[in-house]
Amino acid sequence: MSRRRSFQLALLLGPAVALVGLLFLFPLFGVMKQSLFSPGFTLESFAKLVNSPVAAIVMRRTFVLALTVTALCCVLGYPLAYFLATMSKRWRAFFLYLILLPFWISVLIRTYTWMVLLGREGLVNNALMGLGITDGPVQMLFTGFAVHLAMVQILLPIVILTCFASMVEIDPQLVRAARTLGATPFKAFARVFFPMSIGGAAAGAIICFILSLGFYVTPALLGGRRNIMLANLIDFEVHQTLNWSFASALALVLLAATLVLLGLFRLVAPERRLHG
Amino acid sequence: MTSISRRRFAVGIAAAGPVALLASALFAGPAAAQVTITVNGSGGGLAQTITRIYEEPFTKETGIKVRATAPVSLPKLKAMVESGNVEWDMTELGGSDVIEATKHGWLQPVDWKVVDPDGKLPDIAKRPNAMVTSSFSTVLAYRTDKFPAGKGPKNWADFWNVKAFPGPRALQNSPVGNLEFALLADGVAPDKLYPLDVERAFKKLDQIKDKVTVWWTTGAQHVQLLVDGEVVMTSVWNGRITPLRREGRPVAITYGGGSLQLSYWGIPKGAKHPKEAMLYMRTRLDPEKGERFVSEVPYPGFVPGLIERLKPEVARDLPIHPDNVAMQFRFDPEWWASQRAPLTERWNAWLLQ
């Protein structure tokens, strides 16, 4: 790399690096410090991480919830992306727009919309009772069901779009070639198309999982007493118990999990998409 | 503004006269007009009432502007004082907040010679570093349309009685107050609550746990839950229900087993305008303003001469009305200050199971 080129790079990257350093890395360092000093050096918060039954339950439930949401998003998103990738360009633009429309609406608004729909006197319950399917209102709001439903709805576009991006790059001639060579439609899909699209799907799943891990507002508003995630526990430690070093330790667990997953992402994501 | 309230407004200005005199003596010169104090409170509709009744007349009298912020937050106070970057000149605080803040030295002493020079405030309203601004109660509220007329729940034993009073319920996501309610429901006498029998309280809470669909965290939330019909009864802060009743919503409260609490104003250590904050604190001693405030929001302070001025129907709705006091218990912030951390931990674990 020439000197001139590296100067240009520094100039271009400088503002972004300064911004990230100042607004992200510096406070992050503060969080790390908070978890280890209180005020003298202590590992008390990390010991509590291991000993506290609450932290153990919340961490387990956070990972299980993120995993089920990711699985649901993949099962629903992969076929949808396949459907998009194989349709005519005109219809594709229309359906992509339909998928992106909710994606552009704030997570908070989408969460509140679910409250309106799922409430005891909400749209769904009124319809169920009006049609005589149930006698009384069904408790859907403030349950794990509501949290799963809303999180899948919020994260599904991300999985669809990542899967779709890898699928449109697959040359359709290859599947056709497999068919002319005698493969059944299923075999052509399973042996040719699927292996080529799995990288995109895995990347989508990891992004979905990472985003799920940090969910805060949706479980807080739609969940019941059992649907507490790590982010909610951090909030509780900051605001209710004022135990900021424990909150910092919890935040670092979340960060570590995310970093590990990002490493995994680099392994599975096709090289070319990482570098443009 | 009606003619009556305009007249009262004039009386209010006259009553605030001594404050103005003192202010002009302390802050003679054009510089006085530049001061803006930041007063932190609970926000919402309440903040608008405070602006109209207290802040605007104060600015008119003294030239000191008041900037209101929200919400009340002990962690924010902690962060401000510890970082030395104190934005608030004064903040609202709950009873156990004051104890905690005092323990850590986050508040500075109040100069009672400035705030209450004639010694009119009763001792209960004064702490070395905080003044009582209002009293409120955490009470049982319910939907009147979900029960036969006049047959709504009357106390916490009824809240626990899911056979006679069916329907989903809500409680605050905190052990504070709920342990007391559980013990009252279990038959403990209101004056024998403290020190709390924690084991007995959690045992009683086990019985209601699955009937409580929501564990609320904010005042706005419990109001919404009742209005939307998500629950038929919940614990609430009494003042939040008054505006709903004025709107004609089918909600009511009972003071039976209510938790009578005090709310304070304190000045953070390192506040930039403590003197001006104390002058503003003093406006809360004005009985005429107090009367107008309490007529809109049922959170009375210990303003000397206030109760005598109130209409009987307004007074009857207040948490400190003798009939209501008799039905409630006096919340003990001292007991909670030492127990809060371990019990909150236990509460969290209990909720997750």
CATH-derived architecture of the largest domain in chain B: 3-Layer(aba) Sandwich
Number of helices, where a helix is a run of at least 4 consecutive DSSP H or I residues of chain A: 13
Q: CATH superfamily of the largest domain in chain A, called what? A: MetI-like
Number of domains of chain B: 2
Helix count from the secondary structure assignment of chain B: 17
Spans of chain A of at least 5 consecutive residues whose pLDDT stays below 50 are 272-276
Overall morphology of chain A:
globular
Proportion of residues in extended strands of chain B? 15-25%
Evaluate the radius of gyration of chain B: 21 Å
| SSE sequence of chain A, one letter per element | HHHHHHHHHHHHH
- Largest Cβ-defined interface: A-B, 25 and 24 residues
Outline the fold blueprint.
The complex is a heterodimer of chains A (276) and B (353).
Chain A: H1 3-36, H2 44-51, H3 53-86, H4 89-103, H5 107-118, H6 123-130, H7 144-167, H8 172-180, H9 185-213, H10 217-222, H11 230-239, H12 244-268, H13 271-274
Helix pairs in contact in A: 1-12, 2-12, 3-7, 3-9, 4-7, 7-9, 8-9, 9-12, 11-12
Chain B: H1 3-15, H2 17-26, E1 36-40, H3 44-62, E2 65-69, H4 74-83, E3 90-94, H5 95-104, E4 107-108, H6 112-115, E5 126-127, E6 130-143, H7 156-160, E7 169-172, H8 178-185, H9 198-208, E8 212-216, H10 219-227, E9 233-237, H11 241-246, E10 251-268, H12 274-282, H13 287-296, H14 306-309, H15 312-316, H16 322-327, E11 329-330, H17 333-352
Parallel strand pairs in B: 1-2, 1-3, 7-8, 7-9, 10-11
Antiparallel strand pairs in B: 3-10, 4-10, 5-6, 6-9, 6-10
Structure description:
The complex is a heterodimer of chains A (276) and B (353). Chain A is an all-alpha fold. Chain A folds into 2 domains: 1-36, no CATH class; 48-274, Orthogonal Bundle (MetI-like fold). In chain A, 79% of the residues lie in helices and 0% in strands. Chain A contains 13 helices and no strands. In chain A, helix 4 (89-103) packs antiparallel against helix 7. The longest helix of chain A is centred in the N-terminal third of the chain and has 34 residues, at 3-36. Residues 272-276 of chain A have low confidence and may be disordered. Chain B is of the alpha/beta class and 353 residues long. Chain B has 2 domains: 3-135 and 262-316, D-Maltodextrin-Binding Protein, domain 2; 136-260 and 334-352, Periplasmic binding protein-like II (D-Maltodextrin-Binding Protein, domain 2). Helices cover 45% and strands 19% of the residues of chain B. Chain B contains 17 helices and 11 strands. In chain B, strand 1, helix 3 (44-62) and strand 2 (65-69) form a beta-alpha-beta unit. The longest helix of chain B has 20 residues, at 333-352. The interface between A and B is medium-sized, with 25 and 24 residues.
